[in-house]
Structures are given as structure tokens and as C-alpha cells.
């Protein structure tokens, strides 16, 4: 078997010139490169998609946790108010909040004034500013932007289902409490009577 391969290779060498052999080896090398590269790109795209998906899930989870936290605190507060009774609260958020990144600002002002032969003074002023983000190094060596301020998510609306939801005084008290706590406009607050089930 081994002799057959040697004979085939020797015949191949005899039939092909030196240039053709190099060309064939070069083409085989390019073919191997073409086959190898798309596989790694697909993997990196898949990994990037997985990372983006998990990041979106983390944001959604934190928003849901924040909504639940607000709902529980408001439920506890309202249930202790006279006439409200048992409550169920639904809070919806308008946005996911905002993180304000600290930037290193540099501002340049430049002024020029020229006086021509007629005694007229021309002046020009140029202002430019440049901001670069400030990063902080984590314990694992990664750098993340330094967040100087974090704004909480804005509340889109509040639904309160309460035992005392049919009493006008209770409805006004609930509405005033929600407006004071969250700064939500009155038309974004709905109070309803709880059914006995």
C-alpha cells in the first residue's frame, strides 16, 4: 500500500513542473484558510448575541425587581391608611433609568483681533471643548466608565386596586400619596374598588 502511494507521488512530481507544484500547494493553503475563518466568525457572532441577550435579560430582571420593590413598599404604606383596606398595586416604568458617566472636560478659547488700514477692528473668537470618559479599574483588571450619577427609572403609571376604592376621600388620599411619592401626574394614576372573591 505504501509503495502505491510513493509511486503515485513520484508520477505526480514527474508530471507537474516546479511552478505548478508551488501553485497547487498555495491554492490548497488558501482553501484551508477560507474553510477555517467563517467557522470562527460564526462562533464570535453567536457569543456576542448570547452576551447581548443576557445583558438585556439582566436589565429586564433588574427593572422587574425595582417595580416589585416599589409595589411592595406602596402596598405596605397604603394598607396602613384608614379606609384603604387590602390593596394590589401595579406600577409600570417608562424607561430603564439613566447612568451619567463622568467626563474629563477640556475647553479651549481663542480670540483674535485685527485692525485694518481704515481703523476698523475685526475680532473673532473660537471656542472648542473636548470630553473623554473617565474609567475605573476593577479588581479583575477590566475598566468600566465611572458613573457619577444614576437616575432611577421614570414611572409611566400606577394602578391601585383597594377595598376602599369606591370612597372618594380614600381615592383622593391614595392619589395624593402616589403623587407625593413618585411625582406621577394624576391622570396616570387609576384607583379601583377591589372585588370580594
Describe the protein's architecture and organization.
Among the domains are: 2-50; 100-148, no CATH class. Helices cover 46% and strands 31% of the residues. It is built from three helices and nine strands. The strands form four sheets. Strands 1-8-9 form a three-stranded mixed sheet, with helices on one face. A two-stranded antiparallel sheet has the order 2-7. Strands 3-4 form a two-stranded antiparallel ribbon. Strand 3 (103-115) and strand 4 form a beta hairpin. The chain is flat.
Write the layout of secondary structure elements.
Layout: H1 2-15, H2 18-79, E1 87-93, E2 98-101, E3 103-115, E4 121-133, E5 135-137, E6 143-145, E7 147-151, E8 155-162, H3 168-182, E9 189-193
Parallel strand pairs: 8-9
Antiparallel strand pairs: 1-8, 2-7, 3-4, 5-6
Helix content: 40-55%
Helix count? 3
Main β-sheet, spatial strand arrangement: 1-8-9
Low-pLDDT stretches: none
What's the overall average pLDDT, rounded?
Answer: 80
Instruction: Sketch the major β-sheet.
Output: 3 strands, mixed
Category from helices, strands and their pairing: alpha+beta
What is the chain-wise order of helices and strands? HHEEEEEEEEHE
Shape: flat
Ends apart, CA distance between termini: 87 Å
Rg: 35 Å
Say how many strands there are: 9
Q: What fraction of residues sit in β-strands? A: 25-35%
